[in-house]
Write a structure and sequence with these properties.
Elements: H1 27-34, H2 37-41, E1 48-55, E2 59-63, E3 66-70, E4 72-75, E5 78-81, E6 84-90, H3 93-115, H4 119-124, H5 142-156, E7 159-165, H6 175-186, H7 193-203, E8 206-209, H8 222-230, H9 240-245, E9 251-252, H10 272-279, H11 281-295, E10 298-302, E11 305-310, H12 315-328, E12 339-346, E13 349-355, E14 361-363, E15 367-369, E16 372-374, E17 379-381, H13 383-411, H14 420-427, E18 435-445, E19 448-458, H15 462-472, H16 477-481, H17 485-494
Parallel strand pairs: 1-8
Antiparallel strand pairs: 1-6, 2-3, 4-5, 7-11, 7-12, 8-9, 10-11, 12-13, 13-14, 15-16, 16-17, 18-19
Helix pairs in contact: 6-10, 11-12, 13-17
Length: 504
């Protein structure tokens, strides 16, 4: 029986890979394997699959000494795109279970035990952890972590929020330092054989690019995938030898530091987040001991996002201290992402002021933190996140219109309706409540298709998140931000020729 307060290490992942899926029916068999240190010490990890997630960004950038909103920026004298590219690498099903089991059942309890010896330290590290809310009803999320920072600003009144971001966090972690941090959490000088094998897999990893698997005119070989699936294998190849014998390139981690030593871990493994937190432990401790304890500096770290609250006359000292200490663990603070926001009481209310690089200040520019904009007197959802919500809404309607036009052409129809239910569920107040939705999954057993019908849990849409954030942050202004969402959705639908949409 799994305790609800524990995160289950076993997950039935649906994606195709180089080894077969592991449904819930084989859980006991998998657990018997992954809980055996001798087997894990000799386990052969298969290549990861690599994919890129691109996010186009419209940001304030400096051109010729003038700040402009643009999709591009100047870096080292060269104009480059502002597009954020996240490199995701994901493991085969059995490898993912190994990472997940060791993360949840073995390493995390020791890491949490270490943090719990120092409340200041434990409170400071917020990402990738299961931290209970004060009422013990649920676990904290980014809304609660943002509220903690905003409440502290309100408490201090006159202070500066310094937000810093570590550049290329996961891809630049030093392997030697990671290994030492890992051993320290385990209470050892060196890693045991099973842990060392996992360490090697997470640092000296190999991978195949997802696009390289699209071998049929830039598409997956659906026919071969169907044959494999019919044979009970949800895989790209019948066996790993087929991959090795194919023309597909198996890449190896080639990222190196100035000493030509391999660096970086994959972002996307079940163990990646924990490894990143362990890597930062020495830095977290020195910030708490030297800044929080000695100088009353408030410190929080959410993955590679660092926020500190200090007095106005402490800014230079605190910023230099953090930059220097981050450098000691072979990481770099992104200068262009560093933000300073001054908070002070003006006209009987707390207000925010952006501190520019030349030390001039700009009134009513908010602190951006974990998806929210904090002005002192009000809290809003980050405008870019809201713009993305509406952009996705409009793109979805456009895609549905293309689909309808294709059906009209294919079936020789004059009219075709828009099915609005799913659209409303995703992009309106009608999708705020969680509910069970009918779903089905077809698997092949001994070459025979067997369809299983079940209910899929729909946990609500983005508006549900926003409304809850509004309540948790005591910020009714967030709900006012979204009051026109229904009008925008209806206006978008009316742009296209759907037979069941009233244009009036």
């Amino acid at each position: 029986m799994i305790n609800k307060k524990e995160k289950d290490w076993f997950k039935d992942r649906g994606y195709p890979h180089f080894s077969n899926k592991t449904p819930v029916s084989v859980r006991d068999k998998v657990e018997h394997y992954v809980s055996n240190p001798k087997k894990i010490a000799k386990h052969s990890f298969l290549p990861l699959i690599f994919k890129e997630i691109k996010q186009r960004r419209y940001k304030e950038s400096e051109f010729g000494g003038e700040l402009k909103q643009s999709h591009k920026k100047i870096k080292k004298g060269v104009i480059i795109s502002n597009t954020k590219i996240r490199e995701i690498l994901y493991a085969t099903h059995i490898d993912a279970h190994v990472y997940s089991y060791y993360t949840q059942k073995i390493i995390t309890p020791k890491y949490e035990s270490y943090l719990n010896k120092n409340k200041l330290l434990s409170d400071a590290i917020t990402a990738y952890r299961r931290i209970e809310t004060e009422d013990k009803v649920k676990f904290k999320n980014n809304v609660h972590f943002a509220k903690d920072v905003f409440d502290e600003i309100k408490k201090r009144q006159n202070c500066v929020a310094l937000v810093l971001d570590i550049e290329n966090f996961f891809p630049t972690l030093n392997h030697k330092k990671l290994k030492l941090a890992w051993a320290k959490i385990l209470g050892n000088k060196t890693l045991p054989k099973d842990h060392y094998n996992i360490f090697k897999a997470a640092t000296r990893f190999s991978y195949v690019k997802l696009d390289d698997l699209k071998t049929k005119n830039n598409h997956f070989d659906e026919k071969q995938l169907a044959i494999n699936k019919k044979n009970g294998k949800h895989t790209f190849f019948d066996n790993i030898k087929e991959l090795i014998d194919s023309d597909i390139i198996i890449h190896k981690n080639q990222k190196k530091n100035s000493d030509k030593k391999l660096i970086g871990i994959p972002q996307g493994l079940p163990i990646s987040a924990l490894l990143a937190n362990m890597y930062m432990l020495a830095f977290d401790e020195i910030v708490i001991n030297e800044l929080s304890v000695k100088h009353d500096v408030y410190y929080r770290r959410y993955s590679d996002d660092i926020v500190v609250l200090c007095k106005e006359n402490q800014i230079d000292f605190v910023e230099k201290f953090i930059i220097d200490e981050v450098a000691k663990i072979d990481l770099i603070i992104s200068e262009e992402k560093t933000e300073m926001t001054l908070f002070k009481t003006q006209n009987n209310r707390l207000q925010s002021f952006k501190i520019r690089k030349d030390k001039s200040i700009q009134e009513n520019v908010p602190l951006n933190y974990l998806g929210f904009e904090f002005y002192g007197y009000q809290t809003l959802i980050k405008s870019k996140n809201l713009a993305q919500f509406y952009r996705e809404m409009k793109q979805t309607v456009k895609r549905k219109h293309k689909r309808v036009e294709h059906i009209k052409e294919e079936k020789l129809l004059d009219e075709a309706p828009l099915f609005k239910r799913k659209l409303y569920r995703l992009y309106s107040f009608k999708g705020v409540k969680s509910r069970d939705l009918p779903a089905k999954r077809t698997d092949f057993v001994n070459g025979v298709a067997k369809t299983k019908y079940f209910d899929r849990k729909f946990r609500g849409n983005y508006l549900r998140y926003a409304y809850r954030a509004s309540d948790d942050l005591n910020a009714p202004e967030i709900k006012r931000q979204l009051r026109n969402h229904w009008k925008i959705l209806q206006k978008t639908i009316k742009k296209y020729e759907f037979s069941n949409v009233d244009k009036t």
